[in-house]
Amino acid sequence: MEMIRIDSTNIDQEHICCAISDKKGDPCVSSKKNWMKSQFEHGLTFLRLNARGKAFIEYIPAESAWCPIEAEGYLFVNCFWVSGQFKGQGHANELLKECIEDAKAQNKKGLVVVSSAKKIPFLSDPKYLKYKGFQLCDTAKPFFELLYLPFNEDAPKPKFKDCCKNGSIEETGMVLYYTNQCPHTEKYAPKIAELAQEKGQTVSLRKIESALQAQNAPTPFTTYSFFSEGEFVTNEIFSESKFIKFLEKKG
Q1: Given Cys at both, which of 71, 94, 208, 248 links 62, Cβ 3.0 to 4.6 Å?
Q2: End of a domain among 102, 128, 161?
Q3: CA triplet 29, 33, 38: central angle to 5 degrees?
Q4: Same domain, 146 and 231
């Protein structure tokens, strides 16, 4: 199947897979596309199948990654997702192959990606990545793994920065760190703050607005990381119903 590379010349016309419809007044697609537009000059690449669905890979030079890692000379995979009807047809292999070839053409040392000890929503599948040759190079609490695919045996191992390794923050209460790298955060981050307020509680929103902020964040997954009483809770975007259940459980 044909692949489409989304860049500054076609982003306004192309869909971005994880948010298919662009409804008027819905901030999801526009926030993601605006974030992408700001990152193209830093080497962001978004490659997808020419189909309506979730089958794409997004990557950027590690020096510009919105992630607190040390991985000079690597390409950082922001998001790698193949789901639904596209699974089991070799599309993931095709997308990864294109990314690897691009990295080699840029004389990179390899690829690096944030994953997890076991499959976690919104993180790339560790089983698949390790099957394709990715190796563990660092960990961060509570479950994050930094995986890398070096092109040479002597390539230096990337690592998480110390600021994100403990799975905790000094702030108490409920705190959400997020970016517009995911198209759904601009909608659902304010929603949980509103829901909390209705219940007489507070969620402090910490929107990360630059790569520099992200590279010094207290979490490896800057796209969405929710903390409660100083401890990491989840990187999975809360729907309204899931957040209400969390509040009920929290008491």
Answers
A1: 71
A2: 161
A3: 155
A4: no
Alpha-carbon gap, residue 190 to 194, rounded angstroms: 6
Verify that 143 and 204 share a domain, yes or no: no
Nearest-angstrom CA–CA distance, 53 and 86: 8
Does 209 share its domain with 148?
A: no
3-state secondary structure of 118: coil
| Length, in residues, of the chain | 251
Determine contact, residues 35/186, Cβ cutoff 8 Å. Answer: no
Q: Are 171 and 205 in contact (CB under 8 A)?
A: no
Task: Write the single-letter amino acid at 20.
Answer: I
Task: Look at residues 139, 161, 183 and tell me which one is the last residue of a structural domain.
Answer: 161
Structural domains counted in the chain: 2
Q: Do 133 and 149 meet the contact criterion of CB atoms below 8 Å apart?
A: yes
pTM exceeding 0.85: yes
Q: How far apart are CA 143 and CA 141, in angstroms?
A: 5
Tokens standing for 142? 């509570």
Cα 21 to Cα 162: distance, rounded to the nearest angstrom: 39
**Using one digit for the tens of pLDDT, what is the confidence trace for 168-216?**
999 999 999 999 999 999 999 999 999 999 999 999 999 999 999 999 9
